[in-house]
Amino acid sequence: MRESNNDQTIYQWRLADVRRVLDLAASLPGLRRVDLVTNYRCPKPVVERAVRLIEHNDERFAKDIRWGPMAQGELFLLPDAGDELARARRLLREWYGRHGDTGTYAVLARTNAELSPFAAVALETGIPYRAAEDGLLLDEPDLDDLLGALPDEERPSVALARAGSRSRLSRSLLGWSLPYSTAGELRDAVLDARRRRAELRRDDAQLVLATAHGTKGLEFDHVAVIGMDEGVFPSRRTIEEHADPLRAMEEERRLAYVAWTRARRTLVLVYDPYAPSPFLREAFSGEELAPSPAQR
User: Fold this and answer.
1) What span, in angstroms and rounded, lies between the C-alpha atoms of 179 and 264?
2) What is the DSSP string of 32-68?
3) Buried b (16+ CB within 10 A) or exposed e, 120-146
4) Which regions of the chain are under pLDDT 70?
5) What residue ranges in 144-262 does DSSP mark as E strands?
6) CB of 49 within 8 A of CB of 279?
7) How far apart are the C-alpha atoms of 37 and 40, rounded to whole Å?
8) Are residues 62 and 166 in the same domain?
């Protein structure tokens, strides 16, 4: 059996189970395992840190993973304690297109919801992007009804706050409504966002917005993994709601491994320096993750 993917078994919700791979030899006596141990895609620093991370998993074949001789590139830690929209603006301003080439740039997240600030900033700044799901709620079937129900005589943010933000859609619309004085202005802004998205969201765009689940088997020249924060990646909810939290943590770790190893040339890990993901603490030292003096 040629074996290379037990570290990338990430579809537990589709009933994938890494134990099926690990126990295969017991079911098929005489089976010979051949480990594929050279990563020809990622540069040395990415392989080193991804391996340091995945070695914390118990349910895996132990193997000495190496990097290919031709793989050149870098890994960057990007501590950012700002809110999600500020993070998106800074990353796209300082990272996207800065390598002077026509390569692909991928922003990878744990969930689609975390991609929405980046889609919003792409619309705001006119950056074409491609995404299976961009996290925006422009196509929600109840959005137009919710907009139509807003009274014209008061600020939409006040009306939404007074009504209570019971659904994800109404909470998102409340945040979106803050700059606008009337419901009409908010409705016009939504229509304008739909028009801009129809122009900018296209399959040939250099910028890709995707979840880690959606990129297994793919590769990109430059990758930024966002939300490497405590409680976000790994997902606190996923672990707390799982019948076996330790196995859930291992699957989350495999998911992070998949995300990090999509990078052909550069990898950027974006995180809150005051609450970094435990996965970062496994792969990097505290000194490496500490905020700079300017951030303290």
Assistant:
1) 40
2) --EE--EESSS-HHHHHHHHHHHTT-SSS-----EE-
3) bbbbeeebebbbebbbbbeeeeebeeb
4) 1-26, 28, 33, 61, 163-166, 292-296
5) 207-211, 220-225
6) no
7) 10
8) no
One domain for residues 65 and 143: no
With left for phi above 0 and alpha for psi between -120 and 50, is residue 15 left, alpha or beta?
left
Please tell me whether residue 21 adopts helix, strand or coil conformation.
Answer: helix
Report whether 100 contacts 67 (CB < 8 A). Answer: no
261 and 227 share one domain: yes
Gyration radius from the chain CA atoms: 21
Task: Give residue-wise pLDDT tens across range 215-241.
Answer: 878 999 999 999 999 999 999 999 998
In the listed set 148, 169, 200, which residue is the last one of a domain according to the structure? 200
- Spell out the residues 6+ positions from residue 93 whose beta carbon is closer than 8 angstroms to its own: none
Total domain count, the chain: 2
